[in-house]
Amino acid sequence: MQTRTLRFNYEFSRIYRKGKFAAGHYVVVHYLRRPGSPGRVGVTASRKVNGSVQRNRVKRLLRESYRLVENRVQEGYDLILVARQTDDRPGMRQVQTDLLKVLRRARLLKPEGETSE
RNA sequence: UGAGCCAGGCAGGCAGCCGCGGGCGCAGUCCGAAAGGGCGCGCGUGAGGAAAGUCCGGGCUCCACAGGGCAGGGUGCCGGGUAACUCCCGGUGAAGGCGACUUCAAGGAUAGUGCAACAGAAAUAGACCGCCGGCUCCGGCCGGCAAGGAUGGAAAGGCGAGGUAAGAGCUCACCAGCGGGCUGGCGACAGUCCGGCUAUGUAAACCCCACCUGGAGCAACACCGUGGAGGGACAUCAAUGUGGCCCGCAUGUCCCGGGGAGGUGGCUUGAGCCGUCCGGAAACGGUCGGCCUAGACAGAUGGCUGCCAGAUACAGGACCCGGCUUACAGCCUGACUCAGUAA
RNA sequence: GUCCCGGUGGCCUAACGGAUAAGGUAGCAGUUUCCGGAACUGUAGAUACGGGUUCGAUUCCUGUCCGGGACG
Question: Which of A65, A85, A97, A99 is deepest in the core (most CB within 10 A)?
Answer without folding.
Answer: A65
